[in-house]
Amino acid sequence: MADAQNAAAAPRVTRREDYREPDWLVPEIALDFELDPAATRVRAALKVTRNGGHDRPLVLMGDGLEPLAVRVDGKDAAWTMEGPDLVIALPGAAHRIETEVVIAPERNTQLQGLYASGGILCTQCESEGFRRITFFPDRPDVLTKYRVRMAAEKARYPVLLANGDPVAQGDLADGRHWAEWHDPFPKPSYLFALVAGDLVANRGSFTTMSGREVQLGIWVREPDLAKTDHALHALKLSMAWDEKVYGREYDLDVFNIVAVDDFNFGAMENKGLNVFNSRYILADPDTATDWDYDAVAAVVAHEYFHNWSGNRVTCRDWFQLSLKEGFTVFRDQSFSADQGSAAVKRIEDVRGLRASQFQEDAGPLAHPVRPDSYIEISNFYTATIYNKGAEVIRMMATILGPEKFRAATDIYFDRFDGTAATCEDFVRCMEEAGGVDLAQFRLWYSQAGTPRVSATLAQDGGKARLTLKQTVPPTPGQPEKAPMVLPLKLKLFGRVTGRALCDEQLVLLNRPEQELVFGNLTEPPVLSINRGFSAPVVVETDRTPDQLAFLSAHDDDPFARYEAMQQLMLDTLTAAVRGAPFDHGPVIEAVRNTLADTRLDRAFVADAVLLPSDSFIGDQMDIVDPEAIFRAREALRRELATALAGQWRDAYEANRANRFEYSPAAKGARRIKNVALGYIAASGAADAPALAFRQFEGADNMTDRQAALGTLVNGRSDERAAALAAFYDRYRGNALVLDKWFQTQALSTRDDTAEAVEKLAAHPDFTLANPNRARSVIGAFGVNQRAFHHPSGRGYRFVADQLLALDRINPQTAAKLLPPLGRWRRFDAERAARMRAELERIVATPGLSKDTFEQASKSLD
Ligand code: ARG
Ligand code: ZN
Questions:
Q1: Is residue 440 domain-shared with residue 461, that is, in the same domain?
Q2: Do both 179 and 189 map to the same domain?
């Protein structure tokens, strides 16, 4: 580890190869909560059974707990503490263990375990939060049946919820009441949940394919009730979709979702009682953008799908996290694709993958989809586990084809139902049903780094020879890489007629180099490769600007079409940044043609005509020059804006109609309109601020209002301040919308944003205690390449200061803000030195959490 002082106290590393079955199992637990924000008494009665012929004691993990009573088979028993854990020597094969602790939810600022959020008591246990509630073998391969009784003051906490089905409830003396819940499905402790609060439900019901009626409830505080219809609708769609596509039915009589304002991530799939960050539940046209609506549906689906991929079949250990997360992301992506345009969904998912996962894979925190070690598991809820993990499942689905893939998932769910499985178990099911050998494919689980493919096509009369080469870059701890299996969909098009010269082929590139020959060519071929983004790799080709422009107009795979345009833009921009000769002409012509093609979906057009982000351009460079990238991108943007001024105006006017509707067509219209507004502003047109301000004031929905605000915030007009003030006044009482106010400013492309965020962090409405608010400023700023990398280094200092302050309150969320600082190797010596200095300051801070220590020390290595 990086720092000598801390090395002595370096936190323990957990290794995958050290996995051992649990010594003791817990078939049943009865929990009794006397709920109170200041002092909640938790009594637990565990039935424990010895697992195998050993004489090791029972170790019950704790985190900050003090045992007030410990009984074995009804009698006070001897126990010791080993660090945070409770150790009890037991003579027999089965015993009844009782423990008692008192915890303080209102002082739990980490938001792990039992905590208070805006007057609601709720839990978050994944990964290791249950041990902050009671002593327990808190590991995912211990599956237990839970019975939960809780009592609380009735006026403050009229609603008492837990996993499973409600059993009984009643009133007590002194204004308290109680409820009992029972979950018949054995589950790991990370899926435990309870909620107590003054909540109301948007109720619905769903009849499963076998005819069982399930009561659905979306629980929120009363004023938010009107914003829950979209989530409830998405839940019903998800339940029907999982039956139709995977044959998976819901299994309890109730399914509840609770929204809370303070939450470390998106949501949590607790059995029968999902707990959500309110930003992924609440939506109405006045406060949520189209992006928010889509995200609500996707996260509701994701957590619901976990009922099978995660809950019925869970993970043996946390190294298998992608078993549930990668698969479930793949499932929610497929669900969303089925609700609207699959092509646009794929484009967005790939854009997200490149922005987060490719960066992660190229930096100091790169790790395999199935990691080998960790210090703090919370640091491994990453784009690699989730999004690359989803790509790995998608590749297997591509290799098997839809029927065999479905047969494989049937085997997987049936065989491993009620157990804690591994990634290896999943792959074996794929092999079995697919009749394929995935031995080499398994490298996707063990090797980190984004493979690179180079493809060159050489024509020779009526034949063409395609040479494919692959390399996988070194990553921390993995200097040498073996060649992987890369499923590449490809096709050739004729440059003269635009016709396909062959059917689409699926090539499994599994050697360092492979050649393919195509015959009977009647015209010069143009290569379309990695269609649909069939493999999560970087492809380098020698295609000319002319060929890319041609594909952007003629490819019959919408993703490939988008990709050709992106590549054309990237080639132009990187040439400009490097100071090489470049020509804006082909980009302008390609954008002109795409805008003019009335057959295309407007949402697709909006995606296709957007320039790659500053940071994606930076990812193409050896050393990132944020200012040069910004200038090159702005120059091309301005040229596109002026050369196509009439078309942007037309696109704006044609899609101006302002009657909110949440449909793919209406979303597409808003999307292209707002992209057009951005270009109109980029042209420097004198009326642009007034146009944006008019849209801002007249909008009947948040998509249009926020887009107009964003356009103004990037500029220097008088309307800017007016819009910011109006937005603040209108939404100051709505935390989720106020997050947008902060975030829009932290994302501003202006050159004074590094200064502006310091003021934002001093604003009375800013707080580190709420993760959404913290992320809206610090998280957003960290991905604003130009602003964060301000040459003065003030951006680095700001993020480090905030991160250290947050680390004392909420280490999990603090550690997530670190990765932008860890990318120092990609920048010039001066910036790199400033970034390293901040990392060193962080690592040297006394009392640093192991979450932040792990991220910072690995980033320095
Ligand atoms: N399982 C949750 C999901 O649906 C996320 C849990 C995140 N936990 C954590 N410790 N970061 O994706
Ligand atoms: Zn998940």
A1: no
A2: yes
The rounded Å distance from CA 302 to ligand 2 centre is 6
Answer yes or no: do 385 and 439 share one domain: yes
Rounded to whole angstroms, the Cα distance separating 369 from 323 reads 9
- Do 570 and 528 share a domain, yes or no? no
With tokens 């100091």, the residue in question is: 364
420/311 Cα distance (integer angstroms): 9
Residues designated as active site: 303
Query: For position 4, what pLDDT does the model report?
Result: 39
Please, are residues 305 and 247 in contact by the beta-carbon 8 Å criterion? Answer: no
pTM (global) more than 0.95 = yes
**460 and 318 within one domain:** no
Ligand 1 lined by 293 (C-beta under 6 Å): no
Assess if residue 237 is contained within a domain. no
Among the atoms of ligand 1, which is closest to the Cα of residue 128?
A: 10
Rounded to the nearest whole angstrom, what is the distance from the C-alpha of residue 126 to the centroid of ligand 1? Answer: 6
What's the rounded Cα separation, in Å, for the pair 813 and 809? 9
Quick one: 324 and 382 in the same domain? yes
**458 and 602 share one domain:** no
Number of domains composing the chain = 6
Q: State the pLDDT at residue 6.
A: 44
Domain coverage including residue 858: 732-861
ipTM, two decimals, is 0.98
Q: Give yes or no for a contact between 315 and 324, defined as CB atoms under 8 angstroms apart.
A: yes
The alpha carbon of 127 and the centre of ligand 1 are apart by a number of angstroms equal to 7
Asked if the model's pLDDT at residue 466 lies above 80, the reply is yes
- For residue range 597-643, list pLDDT tens digits in order: 999 999 999 999 999 999 999 999 999 999 999 999 999 999 999 99
Q: Is the same domain home to 35 and 174? A: yes
pLDDT tens sequence across 234-257: 999 999 999 999 999 999 999 999
Ligand 1 atom index nearest CA of 303: 4
User: Considering only CA atoms, which residue is closest to atom 10 of ligand 1?
Assistant: 378
> Is 454 a residue whose pLDDT tops 80?
yes
370 belongs to a structural domain: yes
> Of all protein residues, whose CA lies closest to atom 11 belonging to ligand 1?
378
pLDDT tens track for 260-271: 999 999 999 999
* CB-based contacts of 46, cutoff 8 Å, min separation 6: 26, 28, 29, 60, 96, 97, 98, 99, 136, 144
Cα–Cα distance, 255 to 258 (Å, whole number): 10
Share of the chain above pLDDT 70, in %: 99
Near ion ligand 2, which residues have CB within 5 Å? 325, 328
